[in-house]
Every structure is written in structure tokens, then in C-alpha cells.
UniProtKB/TrEMBL annotation:
Keyword DNA damage tagged: no
Classification of source organism: Eukaryota, Metazoa, Chordata, Craniata, Vertebrata
Catalysis performed (reactions): Hydrolysis of terminal non-reducing beta-D-galactose residues in beta-D-galactosides; (2R)-hydroxyhexadecanoyl-CoA = pentadecanal + formyl-CoA; 2-hydroxyoctadecanoyl-CoA = heptadecanal + formyl-CoA
Assigned EC number: 3.2.1.23
Membrane spanning residue stretches: none
Main location, first listed in the record: endoplasmic reticulum
Name of the protein in question: Beta-galactosidase
This protein's UniProt keywords: Endoplasmic reticulum, Fatty acid metabolism, Glycosidase, Hydrolase, Lipid metabolism, Lyase, Magnesium, Membrane, Metal-binding, Thiamine pyrophosphate, Transmembrane, Transmembrane helix
Region annotated Disordered, chain positions: 897-920
Pfam families attached to this UniProt entry: BetaGal_ABD_1, BetaGal_gal-bd, Glyco_hydro_35, TPP_enzyme_C, TPP_enzyme_M, TPP_enzyme_N
InterPro entries: BetaGal1-like_ABD1, BetaGal_gal-bd, DHS-like_NAD/FAD-binding_dom, Galactose-bd-like_sf, GH, Gly_Hdrlase_35_cat, Glyco_hydro_35_CS, Glycoside_Hdrlase_35
UniProt organism field: Electrophorus voltai
Thiamine pyrophosphate enzyme N-terminal TPP-binding domain residues: 534-649
GO cellular component entries: acetolactate synthase complex; endoplasmic reticulum membrane
Length: 1113
């Protein structure tokens, strides 16, 4: 929760309107450090960010590499090592601000400067210009990337304070319209934080764009570069976007070392002058795999894998002298202690790996059906040596050339020429050779995996170079970071457990490859075949770590492991008689407890049965996690039982839908789903678990392994494929993982917005508040909101979940004549209330009133404002927190008392009329108003009222008085019948001491009457008050007069009380003859309920015209 208090106190974004930056109006100095998430193993992100913070820095800067996020055109990756959202959220959780540098070009010593090389398939491509082929690709990529980061912006509750437009464009400057294009591409997708460009001194002249702050990159302060920037941009704050405290290395040249003393002197000067800066790099990490780029200033020089950069933290995250000096320096400028230094990570020297097998490179090409006749290595050409002697021979021979891509240039004018392969003539004795057949070997982990099934030779046989070598490494106990050294080897690539560590080359300067602990597996296999553990346990562990107390379900084999594991961990498993009930119950738990409600249902029909309830939760903005079973990963789309495309069904209903593909993904996926459900505008999320992700290895293996393996190649391939699939499914399944909740992002009003509202409200004579359901969402406690409303003294109309917010008899709670009050009001505060059908689309609001609207959701906030109403101030933010801040800003101010009094007087007149209506005799049976008045009088002080029906509950909404905050549950905007049983079940479980009432129409009762069985089995006694008029009255009320028929509206006076008894409850039939005893029967029902029985009061009611004129669809 620290995170939330932080975000509530600082709301106005970074401003650059004077000589210093301000954030939320307060001057700030950015003390930044660059760490690239794609260069640090994900398991180490937290450690490195903690070290950044402990050094006294307050901001994290990171590039976003397009080529890694879209490795193949149209295929996007934002998960695992590339989970940018998680990385930024982690920074937020550690109270760090973030400067995002999304490119599209970033340089960063990455292959092609972070641009995807597939762009160059277009022969005419002009990178980093407004060439349509380039801008179209940028637009598609930004359509995916930017929506991920916009909710993380500072003004929306996240940590991102600034976003960079391109990178060092001044040094390229091939298209004067290009920077405007990038700027607009960001802004049009919702980037609202401060924009900046970043250039070295020479690039500043051409690197700017209108309305965007320019910043500088430099290594030395002494050449007047900063003054140059200051002169270019007078009255603007200064930011050294990249202060180069180290440098990158290229193969074959010395390692760069920059003096620690120089760095400290420079940082001290920046601190003394109050200049903001970002250390590039604070921690460089490694360019794993084939990600590193090259330089070409006349000659091509590929970069090494290590991106150590001589930074304050080493490649493997260790402290250096630079780090300690920097920390001492920055600490001396701060008046509070810096956070403690995170512990040093253990290292380990492992036993040397013995390569027991090898396979010639040419052999490996069998994978691709290639045949090479001559396989002898005759020479190596590189960018320095361009010629080699071919031994003479008379016979015909085949010349094979193996071309290695050492990395594309990442900087300078040569970007467009970075096509790789045989791109020029190959000459033999000055004659160009033609008709090469070219094959591309991607060397991806998949390719390497495929090699495993080929024939390897033992090392007793002499290898033919180049070759693949295979060996295993023994790792006992907890794996530790280590380094791979290859003495005596010349050039190659190292893969460990499918991860590409990068290139080795004896020319140096890099002699070792960093191998992070998180990529090693304890023991020498990655799959614990004997383990009895199953994925259901992982699900239960995350739920428990998030404080989830109940899981609602209707059982099915697909999800049994989740239920069994939950029970074992003390999460109460509540099985219902319909999947919709399970979700409705989860919805109620979410609303009443301020956490996420959880339901688990089986694949196929189990899931389709929940659809109405999930949609209802979406419309009610209720955070619900739906866990669904699914067909086995291997069998999806192959006609397995209950195998349908579930994702397509739930995508439109949920904020987040995903299907778990491997056991190791379970924990991070469920954590993410739970955080998303509560962030922004809360709502349902769906996680699908294929059955083989939930059962133990040995059972899944039994299912997957073919009974009789067919002989021959096909059989072998099938067996291999299945085995590989299984290995993948369970690899690293039971490694320890972080279970704790991820930060929840909640948008908050800015201080300016609150201040503006304070002024408007303080001037208003006749203000009115319309409180909606969102006011009851966390983090603001409902009881504090109640106090805030009481101190404001403004009359309130309460809707949805906020009914009851002011208690039973508050002088501020106005229930009747809302239309008249709105006509008279000079200020209306729509606190979470939406201008949909419930407010006649905004038409009830007067054009003369000032209107403040607050809502977490932008679409809801502005609904119909283009047509029927216009907000004076519209604030996207949390309603409860806003009300607390508003009342604080108005301390000492109270709305003039005559205004609520005059409304209350009118309320009383209406109330007297209703009472008179209640005493009228209906043609037969009981008067529904009278029944409701009587029951309301007798309800306990801690009652919760659940409503499910049409006319009868519509009447109840006017007559019954919820007792306090969170004591009223209705379906919400979706108007769903059938919520009763589930809502009551959830309510009773959350508040076992409360008296839970369900007010039912007789029609609606039918949907969930079977849940009386659930109430009995789970000992959750509730009381149902059924207004039995043998009719779907709300519909017939208009169908009959307008269309002249009551077809399909007529029910019978069914003995529902007996149905309840059949399910183990108590039932009472109440007719006109029982009118005088009604009170006694209610009291008896309350007694029975306290004794543990659920009770159904089947009250026969007559027709009243009370609801004539109200909505009836
Ligand atoms: C799932 C669903 N089906 C149908 C409707 C349409 N509908 C709205 S009110 C209503 C009548 C409710 O009848 P009942 O529960 O008997 O209450 P009454 O109006 O008689 O008091 C119906 C059918 C709906 N809102 N939801």
C-alpha cells in the first residue's frame, strides 16, 4: 500500500516550464540510472533496481527494443524476459520514477539499433524516415506497445514521468518530418507525460521538435556542452539524458575503463548545479544471444556480448568502487539515510563441463535436408581477412560457405545497408561464382532443441570442425551465478538449457560469458519427473498469498487439482448448483471485501454457463478472477472433450484473458491476473488452465505417451515430439517463485483537479452529490467516506453499491424526487454515477448546474457528454479517494443547512404518500408495500439486503433502508435476474454474523432456488423474502396494456416454501389471513436463521400501481 500513498500524494506530471523540473508542483532533480530489462535476467530485475535505489538515485531509464518485441513481423512478445509492464510496475513498487525510451530506433548497441531486421526485406526501405513502409510498421508496433505503457504514466497513477521521442535523431536527420511523426504517434495513442529528445552536442541542432524538451548526452562536462544546451533552451530545466560513465567494447580491441574519480567529479558538479542527469549505464548487463550490434565508422566492428560498460554495477550486478563512491556522494546530498545495500549475490565455481558428444556442423544440416559433399574447412574469412587460398584439384567440387552474422550496425548512416548473408560477389581467381543455394539457420533455441534428436558422436571420434559439442553440468542445491570460460576454444556460441548466452571469441576482450543462476537448474535435469506436485498447488499458493479466502465452484475433472489444493491450504471451497452462482458469489465477495472474488469452473459448458455472470461483473466493475479448465495443450483443436475456443468467448467480457501453456507460468500469470482485475477500472479476468498444466507429471506422461509406438521414422518422430512437449510443459515447474501481490494501479485525481472542485463546491449554494457504486471501491475505507460526506453536509442520492453509505436515517440521504432536486441544484457532483439509462443519459441534468464528474473509467466518465450534458470538470480518478481529499480541502466549510432540509421535507411528503399507499388494500393477497415496510422495520441492524427481481424489488429499493455502507447488493447496470443465490452466499461468507436477506421476485427466485441446497450444505443461513404475485410483473405491467396479451408473463402461486424445505431449509407461506401475524413470522424466521436454517418467506402479494411509469424491460 506504500505504493498507493505515494501515488496519491504526487499527481501532476513532470513539468519543464522554468529552469527546474517540477513534479506535482514541487521542484525535483532527476537522478537517473539506465538499466535495460532485456539485458538483465528477469529474476534479477528486483535486485538491480533495489541497488539503483540504494545508491541514492530516484529514476530508472530504459530503452524499449522493437526488434525483440516484434522479432517476426506481426508477432509480438511482451512476456517473460520482455514483460515491460512488469518491469515498470516493479520500479513503481520501489518508488522509482521511470523515463521510457521507446524509440522506434534506440541505438543501445543492439543489432540494427533495436530496429527489426525484417524491415530491410523491403528493397526500398528508408529506416528512420517517414517512408510509408517504415511508418506503417512503426504504427502497428506502437498500437501494441503504447497501450501497455499509457496506464503506467504518472498522471494515471503509474511511475512514468517522461517519454523520449526517437533517439539521437540529430545525428541522423534524414527527414525533417520524421520526429513530428514519432511525437504524434506517441501522443495520439495516449502518451501525455513530458516528451523529450536526446542528442549529443553536435546533434542538438537538428535533433529537436516543437513542444519537446531537448536533453544532452555527453561524457565530459568540460567542453561547455551544457551551456550550449542552456543557451538553446533558455528558461528550461537541464537534463543530461546520458552521462557516459563507461563505454561498450568491440571484439578484438581493449576493454574500456573510465575513471571513477572523473565520474564522481562530474556527478558532483551536476548535483551542485542542480542539473538532472541519467547515468548511462548504471548497470549494463549482457547482450544475450545474438542481440548485440556493431559500429561502422569506416570499418565494421562487432560488439561483444558483455555490456558491462564499466558501469557502477558489473555485468553480473556486483558492486564496484564506482558504485560505493557514487553512493557516498549522493548520500551526502540527502537528509535521510539511503536504503540498506542489498546483499551481495553468491557466486559459484562449478566443476568443468566435459563435452561427451559432438556433431559436425554439416551433419546438423540434415535437419534442413541439405547435403554437402565436401566438408573440409579450408579457411576463415572475416571483415579483416577477405581472401583465402583454395587448394588445387582437378575434380569437380562443391564450395560451401558458412556465413555468420556478427551483428548489424547500430549507429550512423549505414543502417539501411545492413542486409546479411551473401550480399556481394564471391570470386575465385577473379571470376564471380554464381548459383549458390542459400539456407538460413536461425540458431534459435528451437533449432538447438531439434538437434538433440539427431545422431551425436562420442568424443572418442575426432570432430570435424565446425561442430556442435554437448555436455552436462552438475548443479547441486540452489543454483548460483557463474561465468562460462572457454580456454583453448576459438569461436562459437554457448547455449545452456535452451538459453543462448552469446558468442565466444578468443580475440577478446571478453573472455567469459555470464551465466545467471536463474538459467541453471538444480540437478542435471530440468524436469522433476518423480515429483507428485501439480499445478493446482501453484494456483492455490498464489491465491493464499493474496489473502483469498473463498473459491466458488461447480466441480469438473479439469479443475479438481485446483480445488483439492485450495482446500489443503485453507481456502474454503464452496460448491454451488450452477456455475453462474459461483461467479455471482465471487462478485459479491469482491464487492464486500475489497479483494478479488474467485470462481473456478470446468472446461466447455462449465465456462459457457458463467457468461451472464461474468458480463454482469464487467458491467458492475467488480474484480473477479475466473479460473477455467481446458482441454490438454496437446489436444486443443483435436476434438477433445469439451474443447472449444474459450478465449474468444471471454475476450469481450474480461480485462485480461490468457491461457497458461506451461506449469512454470502459473504463478506469474495468476499474480498478473489478480493485479489487473483490481487496477484502473476493476473488472473480471479469465485464466484458462489446460488440464495437463494442473496434474502431476507421471499422470500427464501416462496420458501423453502412445500405448504402442509405431515402428519406423514416424513413430520415432511422434515419440520424440511428445516427449519434448512434456519436457517443455514441466521444465522448471517447481522452482521457487515470488507469490506476493503485484502493485495495483489506481488512477487518482490531481491536486489541481481537487483544488478546482474545492473552489466550485465552496461557492455552491445548492450542491447535490450522486454517489455511485465506484465510491465503495478500495483503497478509501467506506467508513471514512461516510464521515467525509457527513462533514461536507451536501445532500446525497445513493445508487448501486453505495446505497446504505450514510446509514439508515441520515438527514443528508435523500431518496425521492431526484429529478426536482437536480433541476434546482447549482452544482452536481457525479461521484461514480454514470449518465446512462439510470440518469436518462444525462438529460435529467440541468444546463444551469455546474457539474463535477469523477470516475475511474474514461468512457463511463464522459458517457453521453457529447449529446445531453457537459461536465464543468471531468476527473478520471478514484471516487472514494477524491471524496476524502475534497472534504479535507473543505475543512470548516459546510453546505448551507436549509438546502438539505428543504429536500428532506419533500422526501417526507413523498414518504407519507407511500405510507398511505401501503395501507391501501389490494384486490387480493397482501399489499407489497406494506409487506416491505413491515420487514424493513424488523430487519437487524447488521443486515445485508440482496435484491433479485423486477417490480417487487424495485419497490423495495424505495422502501427498505440499508443499514450502513456495503449492506446493499443489486446486480448493477446489467439488470441481471438470477443473482440472488450467489450474491447472498458470498455475502454470508464475508460477513457470517450479518443477517442476510434476499428480496426476490417469484420469477427471479426460480434461477437460484436450488442454492438453498448450497446454503444448507455450507451452513450459510439466509432469509429469502419472495414477493409471489404469480407473474413476471415488471414485464406484464406494460406488455398487457401496450400489446394486449399477458403471454409468457403468467406464473403460478407455487409453493416455493416447500421447495426450500426440500433443500433442507425452512419455509413459511404468508397470505392475507396472516397479515396481523406477519411481524411474528418474520421474527420466527430470524430465529430460525440464527439457529442455522435458511428460511423462505413465500409472501402472496397483490397488485399495486406503485411502480407504474418506471422502466420495464
Ligand atoms: C436474465 C434476465 N432475463 C429476463 C430479464 C427481463 N426481466 C426484467 S424484470 C423481469 C420480471 C421479473 O419478474 P419477478 O422476478 O417475478 O419480479 P416481479 O417483477 O414480478 O416483481 C424480467 C423477466 C432480465 N432482466 N434478466
Amino acid at each position: 500500500m506504500i505504493f498507493q500513498s505515494w501515488r496519491m500524494s504526487q499527481r501532476e506530471g513532470l513539468r519543464a516550464d522554468s529552469s527546474h523540473f517540477t513534479l506535482d508542483g514541487v521542484p525535483v532533480q532527476i537522478l537517473g540510472g539506465s538499466i535495460h530489462y532485456f539485458r538483465v535476467p528477469r529474476a534479477c530485475w528486483r535486485d538491480r533496481l533495489l541497488k539503483l535505489k540504494a545508491c541514492g538515485l530516484n529514476t530508472l531509464a530504459t530503452y524499449v527494443p522493437w526488434n525483440l518485441h516484434e522479432p517476426v513481423k506481426g508477432m509480438y512478445r511482451f512476456e517473460d524476459q520482455l514483460d515491460l509492464e512488469e518491469y515498470i510496475s516493479l520500479a513503481a513498487a520501489l518508488d522509482l520514477w521511470v523515463i521510457l525510451r521507446p524509440g522506434p530506433y534506440i541505438c543501445a548497441e543492439l543489432d540494427l539499433g533495436g530496429l527489426p531486421s525484417w524491415l530491410l526485406r523491403d528493397k526500398n526501405m528508408k529506416l528512420r524516415t517517414t517512408y510509408p513502409g517504415f511508418t506503417a510498421a512503426v504504427n502497428s508496433y506502437f498500437d501494441k506497445l503504447i497501450p501497455i505503457v499509457t496506464p503506467l504514466q504518472f498522471s494515471r497513477g503509474g511511475p512514468i514521468i517522461a517519454v523520449q521521442v526517437e533517439n539521437e535523431y540529430g545525428s541522423y536527420a534524414k527527414d525533417e518530418h520524421y520526429l513530428t511523426f514519432v511525437k504524434e504517434a506517441l501522443m495520439s495513442r495516449g502518451v501525455t507525460e513530458l516528451l523529450l529528445t536526446s542528442d549529443n552536442r553536435d546533434g542538438l541542432k537538428c535533433g529537436g521538435v516543437e513542444g519537446v524538451l531537448q536533453t544532452i548526452n555527453l561524457q565530459k562536462l568540460s567542453y561547455g556542452a551544457i551551456q550550449y544546451l542552456a543557451d538553446m533552451q533558455p528558461q528550461k530545466p537541464l537534463l543530461v539524458m546520458e552521462y557516459w560513465c563507461g563505454w561498450f567494447d568491440v571484439w578484438g580491441e581493449p576493454h574500456h575503463i573510465f575513471s571513477a574519480q572523473d565520474m564522481i567529479a562530474a556527478v558532483k558538479e551536476l548535483m551542485d548545479r542542480g542539473i538532472s542527469f541519467n547515468l548511462y549505464m548504471f548497470h549494463g548487463g549482457s547482450s544475450f544471444g545474438f542481440t548485440s550490434g556493431a559500429v561502422d565508422f569506416g570499418s565494421y566492428k562487432p560488439q561483444v556480448n558483455s555490456y558491462d560498460y564499466d558501469a557502477p554495477l558489473t555485468e553480473s550486478g556486483d558492486y564496484t568502487t564506482k558504485y560505493h563512491l557514487l553512493r557516498d556522494l549522493l548520500g551526502s546530498y540527502q537528509n535521510k539515510e539511503l536504503p540498506q545495500l542489498p546483499a551481495v549475490q553468491g557466486r559459484k565455481v562449478y566443476e568443468p563441463v566435459v563435452f561427451s558428444q559432438h556433431m559436425s556442423f554439416w551433419e546438423s544440416l540434415r535437419c534442413t535436408d541439405m547435403v554437402f559433399i565436401d566438408k573440409h574447412l579450408i579457411g576463415i574469412l572475416d571483415y579483416r581477412t577477405q581472401e583465402t587460398a583454395v587448394p588445387h584439384s582437378e575434380r569437380e567440387r562443391i564450395l560451401g560457405l558458412l556465413v555468420e552474422n556478427c551483428g548489424r550496425v547500430n549507429f550512423g548512416p549505414a543502417l539501411n545497408e545492413q542486409r546479411k548473408g551473401l550480399v556481394g560477389d564471391i570470386t575465385l581467381n577473379h571470376t564471380p561464382l554464381k548459383k549458390f543455394t542459400m539456407y538460413s539457420l536461425d540458431m534459435t533455441p528451437n533449432f538447438i532443441n531439434r538437434l538433440q534428436s539427431l545422431k551425436w558422436k562420442s568424443t572418442d571420434e575426432k570432430p570435424l570442425y565446425p561442430s556442435f559439442f554437448r555436455g552436462s553440468m552438475a548443479v547441486d542445491g540452489q543454483p548460483r551465478d557463474t561465468f562460462v570460460k572457454l580456454p583453448g576454444w576459438s569461436k562459437g556460441v554457448v547455449f545452456v538449457n535452451g538459453q543462448n548466452l552469446g558468442r565466444h571469441w578468443s580475440v577478446g576482450p571478453q573472455n567469459t560469458l555470464y551465466l545467471p543462476a536463474s538459467w541453471l537448474k538444480s540437478g542435471d535435469n530440468q524436469v522433476e519427473r518423480e515429483s507428485p506436485r501439480h499445478g493446482g498447488e501453484s494456483v492455490a499458493e498464489v491465491l493464499r498469498a493474496h489473502g483469498i479466502r473463498f473459491i466458488f465452484t461447480l466441480v469438473g475433472g479439469h479443475i479438481s487439482p485446483v480445488l483439492v489444493a485450495c482446500e489443503k491450504l485453507g481456502i474454503r471451497v464452496v460448491d454451488t448448483r450452477h456455475e453462474a452462482t459461483a461467479v455471482f458469489a465471487a462478485d459479491a465477495v469482491a464487492r464486500l471485501s475489497g479483494t478479488v472474488g474467485v470462481a473456478a469452473v470446468t472446461a466447455g459448458p462449465g465456462l459457457t454457463n458463467t457468461i451472464t455472470a461474468v458480463k454482469n461483473a464487467q458491467m458492475a466493475e467488480s474484480p473477479v478472477l475466473l479460473i477455467g479448465g481446458a482441454a490438454a495443450t496437446l489436444l486443443q483443436g483435436r476434438g477433445a472433450l469439451q474443447d472449444i475456443d474459450q478465449m474468444s468467448l471471454f475476450k469481450p467480457l474480461c480485462k485480461f484473458c490468457t491461457s497458461v501453456r506451461r506449469v512454470r507460468e502459473i504463478v506469474p500469470t495468476v499474480r498478473k491476473a489478480l493485479a489487473i482485475a483490481q487496477s484502473g477500472t476493476p473488472g473480471p479476468v479469465f485464466v484458462e488452465f489446460p488440464i495437463d498444466t494442473l496434474y502431476p507429471y507421471h499422470l500427464v506422461e501416462k496420458e501423453v505417451s502412445p500405448k504402442n509406438i509405431p515402428k519406423g521414422i514416424m513413430g520415432k518422430i511422434t515419440a520424440w515430439y511428445l516427449k519434448n512437449h512434456l519436457t517443455n510443459l514441466f521444465a522448471g515447474a517447481w522452482e521457487p517463485r515470488e507469490l506476493s501481490p503485484l502493485p495495483v494501479l489506481i488512477p487518482q485525481a490531481s491536486d489541481q483537479e481537487v483544488q478546482r472542485c474545492v473552489e466550485l463546491v465552496s461557492r455552491a449554494k445548492k450542491p447535490v452529490i450522486l454517489l455511485g457504486s465506484q465510491a465503495t471501491l478500495p483503497p478509501a475505507p467506506v467508513h471514512d467516506i461516510r464521515k467525509a460526506l457527513e462533514s461536507l453536509g451536501i445532500p446525497c442520492f445513493l445508487g448501486g453499491m453505495s446505497r446504505g453509505m450514510l446509514g439508515r436515517d441520515s438527514p443528508l440521504h435523500i431518496r425521492q424526487n431526484r429529478g426536482d432536486a437536480l433541476k434546482e441544484a447549482d452544482l452536481v457532483l457525479l461521484a461514480g454515477t454514470v449518465c446512462d439509462f439510470r440518469l436518462s443519459y444525462g438529460k435529467v441534468l440541468s444546463r444551469r448546474s455546474q457539474i463535477i464528474a469523477v470516475n475511474r473509467d474514461r468512457t463511463q466518465l464522459l458517457k453521453n457528454s457529447d449529446l445531453f450534458w457537459k461536465p464543468t470538470v471531468a476527473i478520471q480518478g478514484d471516487v472514494g479517494s477524491f471524496l476524502l481529499r475534497l472534504s479535507k480541502g473543505l475543512t470548516g466549510h459546510r453546505c448551507p443547512e436549509e438546502w438539505p432540509q428543504s429536500l428532506k421535507d419533500k422526501d417526507r411528503t413523498k414518504e407519507t404518500a407511500n405510507r398511505a399507499k401501503a395501507s391501501e388494500r389490494t384486490e387480493r393477497h397482501l399489499n407489497p408495500l406494506s409487506v416491505l415496510y413491515n420487514v424493513d422495520k424488523l430487519m437487524a441492524e447488521d443486515s445485508i439486503i440482496v435484491t433479485d427481481g423486477g417490480d417487487f424489488v424495485g419497490t423495495a429499493a424505495y422502501i427498505m433502508r440499508p443499514r450502513g455502507p456495503l449492506s446493499w447488493l443489486d446486480p448493477g447496470a446489467f439488470g441481471t435476474l438470477g443473482v440472488g443465490g450467489g450474491f447472498a452466499l458470498g455475502a454470508k461468507l464475508c460477513r457470517p454474523d450479518a443477517e442476510v436477506w434476499i428480496v426476490y421476485g417469484d420469477g427471479s427466485l426460480g434461477y437460484s432456488v436450488a442454492e438453498f441446497d448450497t446454503f444448507t450444505r455450507h451452513k450459510t443461513p439466509v432469509i429469502a423474502l419472495v414477493g409471489n404475485d404469480a407473474c413476471w410483473s415488471q414485464i406484464s405491467r406494460e406488455q398487457v396494456p401496450i400489446l394486449g396479451s399477458s403471454v409468457a408473463c403468467v406464473l403460478a402461486f407455487t409453493d416455493y416454501h416447500i421447495v426450500a424445505e426440500g433443500y433442507g431449509g425452512k419455509g413459511h407461506l404468508i397470505g392475507r389471513e396472516d397479515e396481523v401475524q406477519l411481524g411474528d413470522i418474520v421474527k420466527e424466521a430470524q430465529r430460525e436463521c440464527r439457529d442455522g436454517k435458511s428460511v423462505l418467506l413465500n409472501v402472496l402479494i397483490g397488485k399495486s400501481n406503485f411502480r407504474d411509469g418506471s422502466i420495464s424491460v
